[in-house]
Amino acid sequence: MSAYDVVVIGGGPGGYNAAIRAGQLGLKVACVEGRETLGGTCLNVGCMPSKALLHASELYEAAAGKEFASLGIEVKPVLNLAQMMKQKEESVAALTKGIEFLFRKNKVDWIKGWGKLAGAGRVQVTMADGSLNELQAKDIVIATGSEPTPLPGVTIDNRRILDSTGALSLPEVPRHLVVIGAGVIGLELGSVWRRLGSEVTVVEYLDRICPGLDEETAKTLQRSLSKQGMSFRLGSKVAGAVVKGESVELSVEPATGGAAQVLEADYVLVAIGRRPYTLGLGLESVGLTTDKRGMLANEQHKTSVPGIWVIGDVTSGLMLAHKAEDEAIACVEKIAGKAAEVNYGVIPNVIYTRPEVACVGMTEEQLKAEGRAYRVGKFPFTANSRAKINHETEGFVKVLADERTDEILGVHMVGPSVSEMIGEYCVAMEFAASSEDVALICHPHPTRSEALRQAAMGVEGWIMQA
What we know:
GO biological process, one term: 2-oxoglutarate metabolic process
Number of helices: 14
Number of strands: 22
Distance between the termini: 68 Å
Number of domains: 3
CATH topology of the largest domain: FAD/NAD(P)-binding domain
CATH architecture of the largest domain: 3-Layer(bba) Sandwich
Largest sheet: 7 strands, mixed
CATH superfamily of the largest domain: FAD/NAD(P)-binding domain
Structural class: alpha/beta
Shape: globular
Binding site for FAD: 51, 115, 144-146, 313, 319-322
CATH class of the largest domain: Alpha Beta
Radius of gyration: 24 Å
Organism: Aquipseudomonas alcaligenes (Pseudomonas alcaligenes)
Subcellular location: Cytoplasm
Family: Belongs to the class-I pyridine nucleotide-disulfide oxidoreductase family.
């Protein structure tokens, strides 16, 4: 039996960052992860490989379509899907090896096996060869992440009916891909395959895409994706799916009830969300239970059991890698006796379609529901010089500020490279900045970032570039 100050169960963004921070703070730490590689879903079969394919497919579409030709670049690209997948895997492998290096650098022991609680202060690990290894620790951090949510009546086989993992490694470009779920994962992966030549149909139970997103922002994104050729069937539910050879027949009916229609595809992606991964975690050994969604409750990252902590997708809040990382840092610093907290009001959210979506803080709908008086500053990318030059004029920047104090309450952007720019408003909001603060800060010209300043100017009604 090995003794540690901290044992982290799970090697994803929450887990590996918790382990690294513990090592930096001089704690003796082990991270239990049964995958062959570190990084969890995000690095192995989520954020990273999807971005590799999004980037590659964007370049392919630019070359194959009218974009390159309009710039005076005449080429006839040939899609080599095998090579596209190979470069994706090479990038992922480099990143996971990087975490192994960081573990060694910070004296983190990687225990290669599947861990579960075995009573207070104990973690039992099933090693790859089937042997059992027990670890002792004063503090245990549960960071086991999440898994795709299944859909009743639709059996995922990752041959014809796929989850997000399967959709990242298809051996061919689908003729017709049906995506069930108009959330972030469905829209991003649907975008990849549409750019590479697929007909893509998105079926969504709600009457809008991206629930939780600012409504105007969601409508703008849907309009753009529709123009690109993605079709949407909103207010619809999939009641069943039958695989027939190389095709899938989906039974689709109105969400409010009514006659079903048959929708045929050669591949189907089920992307209706993710659920916390708590299966076989030994929660009963310490008296922990989950809620009906499978989530573990926490109070400032502490569970109801002393010495057991929880972070990331397995607990409440947005299922985002950077949220898990923030929680990891705060959790471990609390374990080490430091003061730490996560500002959940300033966690950005991004959709890596084209145009991109990035937002932070409250939506207009939330502010209206609260009865909070606010003002809006909005600036279109059609009026931004760099966006015009680059032929990337879809979208806008919208700033919501308190009517009385001018404090920035929320920012919502659709447009080019907005994922890289939302951080400016995260910093501003962390320091409780006003829209005037941003409006008075010099931004470089010509850049897309000027749209952030112009939108802030708009709150007081003095936009100068539109």
